Amino acid sequence: MTTFRNKIQQPLQNMLVLIAALCMFQSAANATSAEELNKDAAQSLQALYKSNPLAASMGKDARAILVFPKIVKAGLVFGGSYGEGVLTKHNQFDGYYNSVSASWGWQAGAETYGYVVFLMTDKAADYLAKSHGWEFGVGPGIVVVNEGVAKNLTSTTLKSDAYAFIFDQQGLMVNLSIEGTKISPIKR
Which pTM does this prediction carry? Predict the structure, then answer.
């Protein structure tokens, strides 16, 4: 009986610690003003453009761009992430969104990172506006661009509705993915 209790108790304790940590992260993120979020998003996007010419090229053709300058992810078997970002259209701030994910499985650690989603088609931009949220894996197709994918993309091979670039990873997390992420509008 004690062994069974310990097997159940430890994952539950891990989950409670994770939930408490995510609540703290969310509270800290909510404290960010719209002006600070706009500034952080603009700086993150410019840094991505400087380090990645493909991203800079996509930015010129995108119908809209979602910029999440800082996502906090933590996990130990159960995991989650949270961050807030800005939607821009035609170089104008057009709305605020949060990025939330939850997961379970083989994972351990904590890290921060940012990501940018280039909405390349009207279909993708309209879906985000009309759906009141977008869960990656549902709706328009999204391609996560890493070094291998970037080498094979050109302006003539860009056929997906959306492309995501992950940047500025700090910390240690054994498992990084934006699959299962839900993006929802928030008020600022």
Answer: 0.75
Phi/psi at 149 (5° precision): -65, -40
User: pLDDT digit string (tens) for 77-93?
Assistant: 778 889 999 999 988 99
Query: What is the torsional sign of CA 105, 106, 112, 113?
Result: negative
Distance of CA 48 to the CA centre of its chain: 15
Can you tell me whether residue 181 is helix, strand or coil? coil
φ and ψ at 124, to 5 degrees? -65, -45
The Cα–Cα gap between 2 and 165 comes to 47
Residue 51: how many other CB atoms lie within 10 Å: 12
What's the alpha-carbon Rg for the chain, to the nearest Å? 18
HSE-up of 64 (CA within 13 Å, CB side)?
A: 20
